[in-house]
């Protein structure tokens, strides 16, 4: 039997949860103590038996006002798949324009999530075009 202590991240309480579990594939939770709410107890079980994560990253954008756009997962994925998904995200190259919520990757590494854009990226306007638009507004 193995013992471990976690600080719960489900709510602002930040409970210190002590768990006992049997190692294996997957590990099996035996007991947990310290959670002040049912969500914390559930989170501790998941963290032992099948830890899940969500994350954000960035992808390369061509033809846009920014060289990169931020992206994130729409659902948590198994911790064991994080690096596989990151490898797939690293390969993405997008063309502007982009809108928040655009789906750029579906089911990466066999997971049940999508990768979506979290920043609007307009098409880059060259300096000469900007000057013409600027002068047109003045006159």
Automatic annotation (TrEMBL):
SUPFAM superfamilies: CPE0013-like (SSF160148). It comes from the Bacteria. Signal peptide: none annotated. Pfam families: DUF1667 (PF07892). Coiled coil: none annotated. This is Molybdopterin oxidoreductase. It comes from Synergistes jonesii.
């Amino acid at each position: 039997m193995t013992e471990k202590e976690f600080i719960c991240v489900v709510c602002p309480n930040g409970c210190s949860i002590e768990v006992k579990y049997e190692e294996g594939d997957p590990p099996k939770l035996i007991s947990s103590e310290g959670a002040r709410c049912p969500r914390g107890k559930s989170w501790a079980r998941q963290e032992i038996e099948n830890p899940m994560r969500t994350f954000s990253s960035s992808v390369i954008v061509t033809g846009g006002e920014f060289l990169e756009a931020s992206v994130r997962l729409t659902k948590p994925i198994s911790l064991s798949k994080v690096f596989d998904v990151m490898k797939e995200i690293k390969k993405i190259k997008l063309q502007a324009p982009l809108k928040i919520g655009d789906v750029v990757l579906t089911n990466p590494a066999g997971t049940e999530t999508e990768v979506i854009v979290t920043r609007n990226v307009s098409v880059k306007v060259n300096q000469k075009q900007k000057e013409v638009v600027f002068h047109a507004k003045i006159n």
